[in-house]
Amino acid sequence: MNMRRLFFPSAPVALSLAMAAAWWSAPADAQTATASSSTTLSASTTVSTSTSSTTTTTSTGALVPVRGVVTGPVESVVFSGQAKVSTSVVTDPDFGGIPTVVLTIDLSSLKGVGASTGATYVTSDQGVVQRRLSAVDTVQYTFPFYRGGTSPMAPSVGLASFNLSFDVNTLKLTSATGSIGSP
Question: pTM for the full model?
């Protein structure tokens, strides 16, 4: 008898679903706000089983207020807004390694204002970064931006920095702060 296996194992599918669930379907009682800032966190945990092991994915979403100035050749641009930061921490039951953090950063709600012209600058950038889980982590991420109403073909570049704290026992993001600057 021939056995057919799925082309895609269930763990990557579960990871994708868990990442989406953190943003769109987190229960209301899982949402909290940190006392030191207006960062809003929401969390969910998913357990998926493959033929050899059980993988746990803990997803936490955060709306992180960011602000800062990117100094450029044409003019300095003052950015402000909220970044959507999504973390999915995936355990490694097969080899017992350090869990992996899949970090998604969405800067599309940031708005920039030119310091000398008052022109509006925008970005629609979203990036994904993988890291090993640690209690405290700093992530720096470059992003393209351009003047509103112009072609994004020759963008300027800014630097978003995020300081993240995790509870390594529950695998959840516990706090996040962010800032914008020049690369």
Answer: 0.72
